Amino acid sequence: MPSRESGEPDEILLVGGGHSHVIVLRELGLRPLAGARVTLVSNAARSPYSGMLPGYVAGHYDFAQVHIDLPRLAAFAGAHFVTDEVAGIDRAARLALCRSGRRLPWDLLSINVGATPRIELGATGAAHVVPVKPISGFNERWLALLQRARRLATAGDAAARTLTIAVVGGGAAGVELLLAMQCRLRQEFARLRADPQRLRWHLLTRDPDILPTHSRRVRQHFRRLLAERGVRLHLGAAVDAAGAGWLQWQGPGGAGRLAADEAIWVTRARGATWLRDSGLAVDGDGFLRVGDTLQVAGEAHIFAAGDCASMIHHPREKAGVFAVRMGRPLAENLRRAVAGRALVGYRPQRRWLALISTGDRRAVASRGAFSAAGRWVWHWKDWIDRRFMRRFADLPERRK
Predict the structure, then answer these.
(1) Domain 122-265, CATH among 3.40.50.720, 3.40.190.10, 3.40.50.300, 3.50.50.60
(2) Which of 62, 130, 132, 155 sits a CA distance of 20 to 30 A from 180?
(3) Per-domain residue ranges for the chain?
(4) All residues at 6 or more sequence positions from 372 whose CB lies less than 8 Å from its CB, including other chains
(5) Backbone Cα Rg of the chain
(6) Is this structure's pTM higher than 0.70?
(7) pLDDT value at 271 more than 60
(8) What is the pLDDT of residue 254?
(9) Predicted local distance difference test score (pLDDT) of residue 3
């Protein structure tokens, strides 16, 4: 993929500030790319690290500790940062079309925009649930919920009011987030001398069990933990309707209905609508189909990584570990594409370690049949997460 005939540098456009692209930017800062101009476009200046979101919710980290400063990172990489949101692309003209009306040119395009929640409740029902993604939107609703809980706690027990919170989604993200919220709100109630029994918790999943991709031992551990913490578990509950203060589901035993003050949505996601509308190759869930070189199928000049990408030959579940590990091969292939060299293949690992926190500075390690639990696992996870974030906080001097 040679540079433009005019001799001008190639335009590399990075769409989205996800985990893969922050790695790309760091790599470009450490080893600048000659013969190209790089632009990062993102609708937010701070990129959240998903691995630390439960810890942030639980109160173990503050906002700055779990977010990467994208303008600063872009400057380190010698890239131009644009605050905007891409809503489509013109493949023939090689332009990214932004919601503001801005049109950004590219010779090489890389997409790392994450995923959007799959909320099949219709527009009315979807308005009454809180999707965990995008994380920036969830954070606003979480802070509002925190304030709501504080007001309830200070209202006094005589009011006999309760707050019922339902989490929809029984995967690791849903279980982890529920336990983090519960830990934080119980701490708030204790600080305000309120009865934590006025907080009611429900976890709903359409699957026959929680954590379906983990071992039986891990599933048993979390079922026991949820029961101990007073979480009511609804298995085989496919939520199909929602309204102001209620959820409805269908299950093996028929329909069910639950009164809930807040409903947090942490189910399987899908690709952004504009990806499907772009004419690019997508799978049944709307994720971009990419080959081993991370090029979108049928596209020599378009790459994708992270949750928005689905590897054709190596399908994997959506997990932050893969988005992070795609970063280096993506950076290398962008470098090689500019130089007109052969691209390298990337093969994700078949098995990976999941460290699932339980809200109280404890965690569970899960990898295949192996599992372990305790405070030491949380400290291990904390060390890994902080080390990752230091890579973007303690940036070395940019090489010339």
Answers:
(1) 3.50.50.60
(2) 155
(3) 10-115+271-350, 122-265
(4) 364, 365
(5) 22
(6) yes
(7) yes
(8) 83
(9) 47
